[in-house]
User: What shape does this take?
Amino acid sequence: MKELFKKGLAECIGTFVLVFAACGVAAFTGGSLVATSLTFGLVIVAMAYSIGRVSGCHINPAVSLACLLQKRITLKEFFVYVCAQVVGGFVGGVVIFGIAKLGGITLLGNACNAVPATDVSGYISAIFAEVILTAIFTYVILNVTDSKNNGAGKKAGIIIGLTLTLVHLLGINITGTSVNPARSIATALASLIYEGSLTALSQVWVFIVAPLLGAVLAAVLFKVLNAKKDNEEPKQE
Assistant: This one.
């Protein structure tokens, strides 16, 4: 129980830092493509080498789902991780909006939230984009953190961070990029609390469902592509 609490706390802290720093940069720069993308990636690198040894540094329910499907964490750990991630993200979102409010700072545009267009085609485009981007991100994570992948080793955190930077560079102009339900829930709730806006909250289901579907897709691809290797028997001398 003590170890599980430590893991949950680590996930809570990690997700707080992700939302506070990365969504903060997005909000205060108007969603600058390069700055926001780099910040998301750099936060992942920093957290991977800080809390990775404690919880594995998922800080994303989609990543936790992929790990659950690969039996790298238990169902109990999954629920603890997701709850901790949502709480940590929510606190990060509240702090960002709170700092802006107290300092009289205007948050530029809707950069803190990932929001699709309001018509049907916009939703379809957003869902497809988020599924694919999350699948890419989680597939890379499953591979570089695989115990059989000796080539990744200590470079895993950097590889994962660069991958998150990549998906943000591609996705920001499509959906604002979420690939992380906890991050989207956090900023949607904070937006409601401080701005009274229901827009992000009404559309947050896209950024919950699509990333989770992407995680399932990544887990299936990983299983299929690694099945032969895992089932191979040692050759007889």
Remarks:
- The chain has a mean pLDDT of 89.
- The first helix runs from residue 2 to 29.
